[in-house]
Amino acid sequence: MTTAEARDQLYLIAGLGNPGPGYAGNRHNAGFMVVDLLASRVGGKFKSHKARADVVEGRLGVGGPRVVLAKPKTFMNLSGGPVKALRDFYKIEPAQIIVVHDELDVDYGTLRLKLGGGDNGHNGLRSITSALGTKDYYRVRFGVGRPPGRQDPADFVLKDFSSVEKKELDYNVDRAADSAEDLIRRGLVDAQNIYHAV
């Protein structure tokens, strides 16, 4: 693919979370936080789309890749419907889809990028894989770590980041947004070499 073709390729970056102000600061809403930042970089405001998602269309930087940034308006465990509807509307392949989500099995402050694989108990990913009929889409896994003691993981992800975590949250969200951009610009292996190295 030429540089010009890559620049004109359209990518869907879907951030996962739960809608509504009561969930806004939850660990489960890390994906929303990342696409909110990407939207500010694109210079766009989210608008309601018939696919049951809020979307922003634009380019990542001057002459950069074309993207659709999306936040499903369904709850997390029904994320697949909006993602599939956006795939169909924009006529894109699964390999042009990046899903940004919280990940319990990755330490807080750590990012992991991958293509395909299981859902690891994540209801949003399970819904997307089922709706798309494939696991072969990209993931930006935003580490939130395991809950302390015997706290239920489902309860843990529906709590806000701790005061200690919040001190680094802006930095971690910024880095996750960078990783999504680099996944498109550089490809998976080069992006992994950058973000998995620390």
How does this structure look, described?
It contains seven helices and seven strands. The chain is an alpha/beta fold. The chain has one domain (3-195): Rossmann fold, CATH 3.40.50.1470. The protein has a seven-stranded mixed β-sheet, with helices on both faces. Helix 3 runs parallel beside helix 4. The longest helix is centred in the C-terminal third of the chain and has 24 residues, at 163-186. The radius of gyration is 16 Å and the shape is globular. It starts with a helix and ends with a helix.
Q: Any descriptors?
A:
7 helices, single chain, 7-stranded mixed β-sheet, 198 residues, alpha/beta, Rossmann fold
CATH third-tier fold name: Rossmann fold
Query: Which structural category fits the helices and strands?
Result: alpha/beta
**How are strands sequenced across the largest beta sheet?**
2-3-4-1-5-7-6
State the end-to-end distance.
30 Å
Q: Number of folding domains?
A: 1
- Report the sheet with the most strands, covering strand number, pairing sense and barrel closure: 7 strands, mixed
CATH H-level superfamily title: Peptidyl-tRNA hydrolase
Q: Quick one: how many beta strands?
A: 7
Order of helices and strands: HEHEEEHEEHEHHH
Describe the structure concisely for a colleague.
39% of the residues lie in helices and 21% in strands. The protein is built from seven helices and seven strands.
